[in-house]
Design a protein that fits this description.
The complex is a heterodimer of chains A (173) and B (98). Chain A has 173 residues and is α/β, with parallel strands linked by helices. Chain A has one domain: Mannitol-specific EII, Chain A (3-Layer(aba) Sandwich). Helix content of chain A is 40%, strand content 23%. Chain A has a 5-stranded mixed beta sheet. Chain B has a single domain, classed as Response regulator (Rossmann fold). Chain B has 98 residues and is an alpha/beta fold. In chain B, strands 2-1-3-4 form a 4-stranded parallel beta sheet, with helices on one face. Classes of the chains: A alpha/beta (173), B alpha/beta (98).
């Protein structure tokens, strides 16, 4: 299994120019709506959820956010991805009073709770790999981003091995 | 209570996406340390009512304190930052605290 099952080139934006996190989320949400993957209500639902329960993730040099909404706004599961031309502040999931400058947005459209676990684990694997995040922000096209993300492989207990590999990488630095 | 698997309540904003990843990572990380646990996922808002049935709460969003059980607030299972340390901390709480 890899992200090729769910990732769609139409929902990838490379070097998105947005003035705010809200604008960036709107751009991605509209793409999902225009192609019939989410209801019209999805966009506002994501923004509302982000304001109440933000999704900014401080990782290191390159940080990410994983905005999403309740399942009722989603018609078909999908993933939209944007790299940002310049970092935008997102409030931090675990401490919403603070913000983190985000370079990569993974907008999740999930239609069942606890499902699409492999997609989520693959994204988590990506977040835990600093070199891969570097590659993503350096990508010159949506096709590059697609290629990088679909190369990530996880299967069952490989999640753990990937995690260990990454912590070893960090220790070596 | 030897042999009873410990119960970890895993909380995130809406219990749709984040807690799923966190629960799986905790189960695998603790299994690698020889500790079998049961994870239950919930929304942050459900934590006060469900915490009494758990040995530990792990959350990615702010939850009330004073729940009567230990609470670990962490993004490590999403970002990987400090993951092994948090797993060690959880293992310590479960093996010594129970």
């Amino acid at each position: 299994m890899n992200l090729a099952d769910i990732l769609d080139r139409r929902f990838i934006v490379c070097n998105l120019n947005a003035r705010s996190s809200e604008e960036a989320i709107r751009v991605l949400a509209r793409k999902l709506y225009e192609e019939g993957f989410v209801k019209e209500s999805f966009e506002e639902a994501v923004l509302k959820r982000e304001s109440e329960m933000p999704t900014g993730l401080p990782i290191g040099e390159i940080n990410a956010a994983i905005p999403h909404a309740d399942i009722e706004h989603v018609l078909k599961p999908a993933l939209a991805v944007a790299t940002l031309a310049s970092p935008l502040p997102f409030r931090i999931m675990v401490e919403p009073d603070n913000t983190v400058d985000v370079r990569i947005i993974f907008l999740l459209a999930l239609n069942e709770p606890h499902a699409q676990i492999k997609m989520l684990q693959t994204i988590a694997t990506a977040l835990q790999d600093p070199l891969l995040l570097q590659e993503l922000v350096k990508a010159h096209s949506a096709e590059d981003i697609y290629r990088i993300l679909t190369q990530i492989k996880i299967e069952g207990d490989e999640t753990e091995r990937a995690g260990l590999k990454n912590s070893e990488k960090r220790k070596r630095r | 209570m030897v042999g009873r698997p410990k119960v970890i309540l895993v909380a995130c904003g809406t219990a749709i996406a984040t807690s799923t990843v966190v629960a799986k990572a905790i189960e695998e990380g603790l299994a690698a340390r020889g500790i079998k646990v049961i994870t239950r996922q919930c929304k942050a808002a459900e934590v006060p009512s469900l915490a009494p049935g758990a040995d530990l709460v792990v959350t990615t969003t702010p939850v009330p304190t004073n729940l009567g059980v230990p609470v670990i607030k962490t993004l490590a299972f999403l970002t990987g930052v400090g993951k092994e340390e948090v797993l060690d901390q959880i293992a310590k709480i479960l093996t010594e605290g129970g």
